[in-house]
Design a protein that fits this description.
With 692 residues, the protein is α/β, with parallel strands linked by helices. It is built from 22 helices and 27 strands. The strands form seven sheets. Strands 4, 5, 6, 7, 8, 9, 10, 11 and 12 form a nine-stranded mixed β-sheet that branches. A seven-stranded mixed β-sheet has the order 20-19-18-21-22-27-26, sandwiched between helices. It has a three-stranded mixed β-sheet with strand order 1-2-3. α11 packs across α13 and α12 runs antiparallel to α13.
């Protein structure tokens, strides 16, 4: 099962997302003036009906289902008028159609308080996930001074530190004692901001997430803020069930949870206290004895399996603070990819829940944890089983049984976790208070005059992608002898490789400047663009252009929407107006086949930017397919996954497959001063390939 995730604005002209035919369904998050207010799941009636989960095969409103399916999945665009589509989406999403307006008015930016933030990301041997999270977290568009800290909960593996080193400015902290709470507390003992921001290593965030997350802290009563967490993808039945189980947990309207909420019966209210997958806490709370740090006996990585986040929110509310749910702060969670992993997660969640309640009764003396509450939980689980049997509960019956087992095992698992904590020790509130007293703050709240003074100083560098003036770019790259010997452009150590703010690379900045200044791509009214192996900053800019229908593809990159072999592109002939494929072909054994495929899907008159590293010394491209080991390829080609070194004949190779090639030389056309200002490589050119 593949369900696309799309966000649609209902105010003003309706723009339906293109190219959904290959999906089994689409989950449409409906926005009103930029704010998500509900969602509708629309199934593809052009596919076999038996592929759907049983409860969705024949919806009650069958006619509406067919109309929406026709509108979103018909290759002809359906012929369903926009007014009807909006009305049907509102009906499914629970939105009052009278709340819609005829025009879209962008929401005002959040009014952020003068606070700084520390984003702490704990991880246990998940390098690919950490890279994806950092690619998003390091390109936040925010007014808030902030830092990012990755806490490695298994440093002996050596998997995480090299990933962190790819992102200049991100701090690395090691915590060998296993447990998510241990990792978060280790991060706490290193933060320099005013607000602790917790981010799981399987959650990515929107560009404006941090500002919206911090804005509620203008109110001194607010102790914590939670994000709206949406699915990152639905690529299988386990991810679909996981999302259905949590989709309506908090709704889509801002909420303030305070004393009145806390004084409700502890079950089931405590389940809605919150989670720390993408949340923020006022740092001073952790030095208070009645709140404390993250409970090390709870959470992932311990026998208890979960509950650490709920227990912290419980203490925030018990201390009389307010917890805010802010749906404008959007994050995207990558659910478990198999049913086995989903089952383990549900057991851990439910065991952590009862472990947390056990602590609330034994340590906090909460009298609401009593026989009446336990009987209520039993009735709740029985009703869930009956809904399963009636086909009204997401997932098969055994998932509900696993959740019951998790509930029953929670107290025993808590005891096992406490034994481990006793043996290996833990940080305390007193430790954290001592750290706060001697730490160096991230920054002082800036005054208007200090901003003016900083703005008046001319800095020598400018990143065109994020728009920041810089004192310097950050050097990067590896010193491999063959790169120096053969003068391979866009490889090896470069003095201006990365922007310290958005982490864009020199190669990415060159592409952006070509698109912006040479071809004015961002001014087009309508254009279909394919982006192979997308660069994160450039991807975000292209996705946010109203006139560009954006498609991303790659064989391995987690940023790509379509998993696709460049030598066997699945799109039809003459489909794209523009293609960007930067530093991909040197990885492909049959590069001529890849070039031919790119030519095939490009429209006549369309342009493809096909960038590769090129030797300034060699006349002919060098290939040796007998080299298989990574060490041999690195020694000969300069990188362990390259299969050739391109040379001065690169343009001829492109022309041989049918492209007409124009070489754009930025340094020659714009001069060395601008090249230096933007931190570009003076010898790197853009190969603009058109289809006759």
């Amino acid at each position: 099962m593949r369900v696309a995730i799309r966000e649609i604005e209902l105010c003003g002209p309706l723009e339906l997302p293109p190219n959904l035919q290959e999906f089994d369904g689409v989950r449409v998050y409906c926005k009103i003036q930029g704010a998500i207010k509900g969602f509708a799941t629309i199934w593809n009636s052009y596919k076999a009906i038996d592929q759907l989960p049983p409860q969705f095969r024949y919806p009650a409103d069958f006619g509406s289902w067919l109309l929406l399916s026709q509108a979103f999945f018909s290759s002809q665009g359906a012929g369903v008028d926009n007014g009807t589509i909006k009305a049907l989406l509102c009906a499914q999403a629970g939105i009052n159609p009278e709340s819609l307006s005829d025009s879209y008015n962008p929401p005002p930016p959040p009014e952020v308080p003068p606070l700084s933030a520390s984003i702490v990301i704990p991880t246990y041997d998940a390098p690919d996930s950490v890279r994806l999270v950092l690619q998003h977290a390091t390109r936040l568009k925010t007014q808030i001074p902030h830092e990012i800290i990755v806490v490695d909960n298994h440093p002996v593996s050596g998997l995480i530190k090299p990933i962190v080193e790819e992102f200049p400015g991100v701090r690395y902290v090691a915590e060998p004692r296993q447990g998510e709470a241990y990792a978060r507390n280790a991060g706490l003992m290193a933060v320099r901001g005013d607000i602790l921001v917790t981010l799981d290593s399987d959650v990515v965030v929107a560009e404006d997430w941090l500002d919206y997350l911090i804005e509620p802290f203008s109110d001194s009563q607010v102790g914590s803020v939670m994000s709206l967490v949406l699915p990152y993808e639905i690529e299988g039945i386990s991810q679909f069930y996981a999302e259905e189980m949590r989709a309506r947990r908090f709704g889509f309207d801002s909420q303030r949870l305070g004393t009145a909420f806390f004084n409700q019966p502890i079950f089931p209210a405590v389940e809605r206290c919150g989670n720390t997958s993408a949340a923020a806490f006022r740092l001073s709370l952790f030095a208070e004895f009645r709140i404390g740090l993250f409970e090390p006996a709870l959470g992932a990585g311990m026998p208890s399996g979960g509950g650490a986040d709920t227990y912290l929110f419980y203490h925030v509310l018990a201390a009389g603070k307010v917890s805010v749910f802010e749906p404008r702060a959007r994050a995207y969670h990558k659910h478990r990819s198999t049913m086995a992993r989903l089952g383990k997660q549900l057991i851990a969640h439910e065991s952590g829940y009862t472990a947390m309640l056990t602590l609330a009764a034994s340590r906090d003396k909460d009298t609401r944890v009593n026989r009446k509450m336990i009987e209520g939980m039993a009735r709740f689980q029985w009703r869930r089983i009956k809904r399963n049997l009636a086909g009204q509960e997401p997932g098969p019956l055994y998932l509900s049984l696993l959740r019951i087992w998790g509930n029953l095992s929670g107290p025993l698992k808590l005891w096992q976790s406490q034994q481990r904590v006793t043996a290996q020790g833990a940080y305390t509130s007193a430790d954290f208070a001592a750290y706060l007293a001697q730490r160096e703050p991230l920054s002082e709240p800036a005054s208007l005059s200090s901003f003016d003074e900083a703005a008046s100083k001319t800095k020598p560098y400018l990143c065109p992608l994020c728009g920041n003036e810089l004192e310097k770019f950050v050097p990067g790259g590896r010193n491999i002898p063959v790169i120096t010997e053969l003068q391979i452009v866009a490889m090896g150590v470069r003095p201006h490789r990365n922007c310290p703010i958005c982490y864009s690379t020199d190669k990415e900045r060159l592409l952006y400047l070509y698109l912006r200044d040479k071809v004015q791509l961002f001014e087009v009214k309508k254009l279909r663009l394919l982006h192979f192996a997308p660069e994160p900053n450039l991807q975000q800019i292209l996705m946010n252009q109203g006139g560009i229908y954006y498609f991303s593809a790659d064989l391995r990159s987690s940023l790509a929407e379509y998993k696709m072999d460049i030598t066997a592109i699945t799109f039809k002939d003459n489909f794209f107006d523009f293609i960007i494929c930067s530093h991909v072909l040197e990885h492909v054994i049959d590069d001529r086949k890849a070039m031919s495929e790119l030519l095939r899907v490009l429209k006549p008159g369309g342009t493809a930017l096909l960038q590769v590293p090129i030797s300034l010394v060699l006349d002919k491209t060098y290939e040796d397919f007998s080299l298989i080991s990574p060490s041999d390829r690195e020694r000969v080609f300069g990188q362990d996954d390259h299969v050739r070194i391109y040379a001065r004949d690169y343009q001829e190779r492109l022309e041989e497959v049918g492209f007409k090639v124009q070489v754009y030389r930025f340094c020659q056309e714009n001069g060395p001063e601008l090249t230096h200002k933007y931190g570009l490589i003076s010898q790197e050119n853009v190969y603009a390939c058109t289809k006759p």
